[in-house]
Amino acid sequence: MSAEIEFDSSWQDDFLERIDDDGPWGDWQLFKLAIEVEKHLVIPEFEGLQAPKHLPNLTPLPHQLETAKQVIENMNGKAILADEVGLGKTIEAGLILKEYMIRGLVKKVLILVPASLVTQWGQELNSKFFIPAITQKKSYVWEQCDVVVSSIDTAKRNPHRDIIYQQDYDLIIIDEAHKLKNNKTKNYEFVQNLKKKFCLLLTATPIQNRVEEIFNLVSLLKPGHLGSETAFYEKYKRDSRSLNDNEHLKELVNKVMIRNRRADTGIEWTKRQVETIPIEFSPSERELYEDICGLKNEGDWLETSAFSVMTLQREACSSREAVFYTLKNMLQRKENPSQAFQQQIEYLIKKVEAVQQNSKAEKALELIKNINDKVIIFTEYRATQLYLQWYLKQNGISSVPFRGGFKRGKKDWMRELFQKHAQVLIATEAGGEGINLQFCHHIINFDLPWNPMRLEQRIGRIHRLGQEHDVIIYNFAIKNTVEEHILKLLYEKIDLFERVIGELDDILTKLEFGNIEDHLIDIFGASSSEGEMRIKMENLSSMIEFAESMQKGDSHAAAGNS
Amino acid sequence: MQQQEIHNFLLQYFKANDCPIIENKPGYLTVQLTIALDKELMNRPFYWHYLEKTGGTPNPMKLTLITNQKEAPDNLKGEIIHFGSPRLHQIFASSKNLAKYIRLYENHQHGHQQTPLLPWLCLNVKISYQCDRKRDEFKSIGLQLINGAMVEDFHDRLLNIPLTPKIPDYSFTLSPLVRPRSGIARIENYVKSEIMKEDHTWAEEAKQRWQKDLQLLDHFYEDIEEENESYETEKKALQDQYEPKINISFINGGLFYLTDRAI
């Protein structure tokens, strides 16, 4: 016999006592009801999902049900859920959690998510899954509540850390797990030392990254699945991207990872409409911009500073406030500024002061009034964010700011305010992650991020499951500036806005071209001139074209047409 | 469980607990809770504590449960009940809790004839087969405490017999030869031996999965020489995850005094 048999004898004494005392005895109706209940609650099969019949208000999509089944039946409850953004990883995790709870395999659960998502997770588990999840607020919660949602930054700090380590968790769920790709961090160490009976790691970024990152993530989930550290790195170079050329490694990873793609789900997605809005500078704005461009040729004063001309150029396309803020910083940070440097800056500051309007803001205002619905404005710069808030208020439009640095409660509050009261949400880059705003379907990209991958994250906030309308994206670009060129390149060369990044990544990785994010960061972050940028971009786009044609060739070959 | 079954279940539960049914219409149910049931279900210990201290008039709540939103009136305020709702599971738990132990007599119609009633011990148990997955089985076993006869599906057989909590007139009970304590032990042994006869491939497979993961784990930590805490943690986690176990848990049970032809 290969399994222990436990016979629960705790009721026996009670029963014998009642025989001696001649009662008290229960009611026959209730006795029968209890049996009837038990017969309904008994789960006669190891396989299959019970959760859906407990969740009448939730209609999981086929790929979500399939994922839950896979994780429980074939992955033994330890998996990386790596669906593309917006396919409902939370639902999948909720289904798995619910299934384990119904079957009585899981009672104590720890859910670690970004601070901005704590409340949302708590609410969804309660309302969609009837799981009494508690969001962590007091330190006694760890011990007294069975299902706790917390941010990892809170959890890893004492006194919480010590209390958490004493708990016996059955299931640990970690959202945005790609943040744990570095095994030298405190967060990594914290998670590594947690006892993980069942464990789900959720991540949206494709695991086609560095082999090292894959190793770290998988080792967190299932140590040894990819071998020991030394053995692993003997086989695969640390920074190589050879995941895709190595079928064996890929197969291993796929044993612990599920990645659904939009294209495979068969769901009809609402469309993305992209509209580029060209804007003319006012004369004074143009003058400022030209003066900044002129800096390039004037001596070496910029080389020693940490700011590039390109930064200033892009800022000039956003707002005079953004330029001013950077200029002020340049002046303050420079030790013993030369007179020429000081004069140069002061000259530019004068130019900034000469600017009296913001053509983009005017356009934005007009657009917002026309749309007459909720709008999200994304900008890269804090100064622009503040300005826009002020400007919209002057014109009778209510707006709320949103930044990554906001505390959890404030983020929730701002989201709520936006949903219920304000027409506009103005977010800086860091605000793009970890907040779902499906109730809105207009985005204005007031300026462009350095890393264009972030555009996908911006759009992903609203173009996800639950979005009922086509999503309209307005890209602002000032005519005849670096901005317009960047946009043209992104838009015309690689169709960035309408495609989902995952697709591009797939195309590139198949041919070992690396991943698109690195290419884009290099092109837009490291190029010193527009010319360089353009050339690099053309290279990238021809690479993509080539890869695509190869892919088509492949499928032809597979179909036997060759 | 279908919505109609849930409705009937709730109705029976409240009736069995002596709660006046105020309304029982298609799609919903309104009941006046008794004090005992208010305490059992409504989770307001402070109210009851306060009331007992001040000696006020107890005012147990009314509860409206909507079992079918389509049939219930639109503006009706109440809790929507479905198979997954926490309230239903609370009531499930309560119904199990309120009648764990029972003693009943067969309400036979033998008139003035003196009738002997034989003692039966009944145990209703749930057997759970657990590794990283789980399945359950319900068993109802009856043991006659005089001749030691063992009967399966005992509960279903009882459903066809009229039963009463008071011993009927002109009846007498026979004293058990098997004491209840050893009766329980007999049933335990019987259930265990039945389990042993089953196919336990599931447990073998779980052990194989466990071994496999354990080997991976050892391999992962073989470079690290000193005692490693996370290694021990992971090892324990694998045991918790995979170790096959069979739990026999008690649902309810009791003594039944039945005529000799009843079973």
From TrEMBL, chain A:
Pfam (any one): SNF2-rel_dom
Gene3D superfamilies linked to this entry: P-loop containing nucleotide triphosphate hydrolases, Tandem AAA-ATPase domain
Domain (Helicase ATP-binding): residue spans on this chain: 70-224
SMART domains in UniProt: DEXDc, HELICc
Molecular functions (GO terms): helicase activity
Keyword Nucleotide-binding annotated: yes
Keywords assigned: ATP-binding, Helicase, Hydrolase, Nucleotide-binding
InterPro entries to which the protein is assigned, alphabetical: DEXDc_RapA (IPR057342), Helicase_ATP-bd (IPR014001), Helicase_C-like (IPR001650), P-loop_NTPase (IPR027417), SNF2-like_sf (IPR038718), SNF2/RAD54-like_C (IPR049730), SNF2_N (IPR000330)
Residues covered by the Helicase C-terminal domain: 363-512
Protein name (database record): ATP-dependent helicase
TrEMBL record, chain B:
Superkingdom: Bacteria
Keyword hit for Coiled coil: yes
Chain segments annotated as coiled-coil in the UniProt record: 214-241
Pfam families: YqhG
Keywords: Coiled coil
InterPro entries: YqhG
Protein name as annotated: YqhG
Biological source species: Neobacillus kokaensis
